[in-house]
Amino acid sequence: DADPNQGSKSIPITRVGDHLFTFRASTAAGTKEATVQATVHGVPEASLVAAPSAYDATVPVTLTWTSANADTSLKLYLLDESGTPIEPPLYEVPEEERAAGSFEIHPERASVYRIVAENAAGAKGSADASVTIAPPTILNFDAMPEEVLAGDEVLLSWTTKMATMIHSGLTFLRGRAHTSMVMPSGMRPGASESSTLWMLVT
Known about the structure:
Elements (H helix, E strand, L loop, with lengths): L16 E11 L2 E11 L4 E7 L2 E2 L5 E8 L4 E6 L12 E2 L7 E6 L5 E8 L5 E10 L3 E8 L8 E9 L3 E4 L12 E4 L7 E9 L2
Parallel strand pairs: 4-10
Antiparallel strand pairs: 1-2, 3-5, 5-8, 6-7, 6-9, 9-10, 11-12, 12-15, 13-14
């Protein structure tokens, strides 16, 4: 038979909050009672969405989150190349924005962001969102003048956006071609750049 003076029992609890447990021990001489309190914390959960998912250097990317049971903190991080959150966080979400909120970013490169929710028990939940860099755009490309004599120079001018390398060259309609030139842009991804190049027509 089980010893009534010693024992244990596991009780699954799903309701979040403070719970009061009462224990009674009885004999013919009377009953004694003791109480103990246990706190149940909800499992932290989070979601994160990036829109637009490709940055074009014009429209900022909005990171939108929802979370539950982030009782202690909700933090937004940029991840490094190994997938580790970079400290300090990009944004420590105030309590009034933890259930739902957003944060605008202007990334300089393709990046991954993480939202981390933590409850009072130290448990964490997280979600990631990726942002890419949009392909380059040629806003304009002009030749001035459009007609010249052999030996004269033509001024080529262009404006690009999101380019990190520029290729420029001449191709003649009569089958002769000059080798293209490759020129580093020298600007950070996402910027716009206007340039000019003189070419000698032979």
